[in-house]
Each structure stands twice: as structure tokens, then as C-alpha cells.
Amino acid sequence: MMFTDPEGLEFLKRFHDVRSWRNELTLSSLDHLFEMEVTAYAERITAPVLMVLADSDTVAPVEEAREMFKRITAPKEVVEYPGQHYGILVDHFEEIVTRTTSWLAKTLV
Questions:
Q1: What InterPro entries has UniProt attached to this entry (predicted)?
Q2: Which of 6, 13, 36, 83 satisfies CB 3.0 to 4.6 Å to 87 for a cystine?
């Protein structure tokens, strides 16, 4: 993973000693990263989507995510939390897990 902000570095420090997590990025992946325009593929999504956004995200810009959400034609739901990319997983963990579990139970029936 590439971390370019203080919050990302703090997140990385939390997982530094977890043996099952590998912090790796291939050069090929990095090359393709800058070519990707995922919003262009939004209309092709056919599976239900739950999009969890952080309103101050600097890693995955929230405006781009909102635009992609608008273009998805499959059944969809969006929820936004205050905070940054990794921060919402710390500050709103229980709520996100509960909401996601509920969404999965409703969607997979």
C-alpha cells in the first residue's frame, strides 16, 4: 500500500507487527494505478453495492466515489461517516460492522 498522508502512516503502524498482513505493492500494480478510471465502469456493475464513505477522505476522494455511486445502476446503498479514509474504521468500527452485516443479511436473502 502507498501511504501519503499522516493518517495512513498511523494506520500502517498499527499493523506493522501483524504477521499475516503483507505491505507489498508491485511495480506493475503501481503502473496501472495511474491509468485506472474506475468510474467509467460503474454502469457495468450488476451486483448489489454497499458503499461506505469517509467525508474527508484524501486517499479515495469522496467526490469521485459519489460520482461513481450515481452511475451504478445495480441495487445500491451509500453511507457516509465523518472522518478520513482509515479513521472511520477506528472511530465508527462497531457501527460499520453492524450496518454491513445488516446489509449483507438483507441483500443475500
A1: AB_hydrolase_fold, FSH-like_dom
A2: 83
Reported for 100-104, long-range contacts at CB under 8 A and 24+ positions apart, including other chains, are 100/50, 100/52, 103/50, 103/77, 104/50
C-alpha cell, 64: 469521485
Strands (DSSP E) found in the chain:
49-54, 76-81
Range 13-38 average pLDDT:
71
For residue 56 the three cell numbers come to 474527508
12: which 3 cell numbers?
500502517
Kindly compute the dihedral angle of the four CA atoms of residues 6, 9, 15, 21, in this order, to the nearest 10 degrees: 130
Q: pLDDT-derived band of residue 18, with 50, 70 and 90 as boundaries?
A: low
Three-state DSSP class for 38?
helix
pLDDT, residue 61, reads: 86
pTM as predicted: 0.68
Domain residue limits, the chain: 6-107
Separation between Cα atoms, residue 21 and residue 97, nearest integer Å: 20
